[in-house]
Amino acid sequence: MTHNQPPKEFLTSYNPSTNEVLGNLPISSNEQITQAVALAHQAAKAWKAAPIGDRVRRIKAAYAQIKPYAQELSELLSKEMGKDIRRARGEIEGGIFTGAYHADSAQKALANKSLGHGTELHYKALGVVAVISPWNYPVMMANNLIVPALVAGNSVILKPSEETPLIAQAFFQHLKTHLPDGVFDIVYGDGQAGETLVDSDVQLIAFTGSQAVGKRIMAKAAGNLKRLVMELGGNDAMIVMADADIEQAAGFAVASSFENAGQMCTSTERIYVDQSIAQDFEQRVVEIARQYQVGPWDQANVNIGPIINAKQHQKILSHIQDAKNKGARILLGHCEYEAPYIQPTVVADLTPDMAMSKEETFGPVVAIGRYENIDQAITQANDSNYGLGACVFGHKGVEEVALQLEAGMIGINQGPGGSGDAPWVGAKQSGFGFHGSAEGHRQFAQTVVLGK
Ligand code: NAD
Q1: b/e per residue, 178-188, with b = 16+ CB within 10 A?
Q2: C-alpha gyration radius of the chain
């Protein structure tokens, strides 16, 4: 920033389909962030001293208050993030449901545990937890980290993405209103506000976002060994074996590549298909992909919304162009879309040197490569420093293939991720520390061994 530019005081939120201004929120100053953290420490004293059952009751009561607002919150989420109303409704209702669900399961996970021989495990609050969240699932991602942190007796400060501050404010204000003063607060701003929060007197940083920002946060946290939960990006691979059900695999490939306009951490980014069925698979993918409708959230039958911003739009186009330059066939679409939309795009002959193979494209693009033998497919799938999700479609020997993939969540003839009690976990540079499951909930607490 040059010295004749005044400091930015407001975050402006836009509808990514129309560029219409949806609202402005004051950016939290460094002083305000430090003050919120100090208040959170004070509030944490009584909060952590209360019985865990009382905390859970208050958290669940706060989520129950959100229910009557589900429709207006879904519309705001759609307008601000761009996803269609059906998906937005799913995220809001899912957020309300999992708020209560995680509160109950965290209560069970954090109960004292006897190991026999006079040894007990206790799970104690860490202090103040900073939750820093992305824009693609602005309610769900923050929610999953806030609830176990609060149940464990911590106070929480949320810093939502600068792209989606309004829905974060509207949804999470209910927690702020219904919990004791200072136990939960929200601060607003971009990466700079995030850095101030990371540098402040917080004991755990629970971050969901890109690998690059995760690395910066980790470096900053090293100074005084702040605890970290890092839920980072992915570059999920899918293998389609020779005996796969082509119809099922093609349907999944398109749905997963296009989900949330491709802006999903576990969307399928790279597909490796056995060459003996590749032509049939590619043809079916194109037929299914053609049926997707692109447009604004409130237009009927739309299932691919706008790309969140011009920078991300440009990145997707550059990946398609790069693939084309390196010899890929563009089976559907092209690389000259005007912002904010990208029409359904299918790219074939993916090779390891293409940007699409190495980085998250994060757009509605199905990218397909071919393999000659299964070892080659496994090598290509694992040729990434990411390791969030992966999946394999096929029958004979499919589980052996799945177990050789380097990812935290692996699906066989389905997408990655398990039941509601499974952890949401990445491998390699997709992060460490995770939420969900008893093991996940305990990462928001200090484990104490008590011998007596
Ligand atoms: P991002 O990393 O750009 O930003 C995430 C958050 O970090 C935002 O709130 C941002 O303001 C903040 N931030 C930016 N710079 C910061 C800094 N230096 N210090 C502290 N905070 C800072 O990510 P994004 O574009 O908002 O989200 C998309 C990314 O998130 C993708 O990589 C996606 O795969 C990933 N993601 C991962 C998961 C998961 O479960 N693993 C879920 C959703 C999204």
Answers
A1: bbeebbbbbbb
A2: 22
Q: What is the pLDDT of residues 85-141, one digit of tens each?
A: 999 999 999 999 999 999 999 999 999 999 999 999 999 999 999 999 999 999 999
| Residues noted as catalytic | 231, 265
Q: Using a CB cutoff of 8 Å and minimum separation of 24, what contacts does 167-173 make?
A: 167/73, 167/76, 167/77, 167/80, 167/81, 167/138, 167/139, 168/133, 168/138, 168/139, 168/142, 169/25, 170/69, 170/72, 170/73, 170/76, 171/66, 171/73, 171/92, 171/95, 171/139, 172/142, 172/146
Q: Which residue's alpha carbon is at the smallest distance from atom 19 of ligand 1?
A: 195
The domains of the chain, with CATH numbers, are 10-233+428-451 (3.40.605.10), 236-383+389-420 (3.40.309.10)
CA of 135 relative to ligand 1 center, distance in Å: 8
Residue of 161, 187, 200 to test ligand 1 pocket, by largest number of atoms within 8 Å of CB: 161
- Which residues are within 8 A (CB) of 360 and not within 5 positions of it... i.e. 6 or more apart? 210, 233, 234, 235, 269, 386
User: pLDDT tens across 169-204, in order?
Assistant: 999 999 999 999 999 999 999 999 999 999 999 999
> How far is it, in rounded angstroms, from Cα 161 to Cα 137?
10
Which two tokens mark 14?
């836009």
Predicted TM-score (pTM) above 0.85: yes
* For ligand 1, atom 39: residue with the closest CA: 231
- Nearest atom in ligand 1 to 159's CA: 9
Cα distances (angstroms) measured from residue 369 to each of 124, 237, 238: 49, 11, 10
CA distance 396 to 444: 41
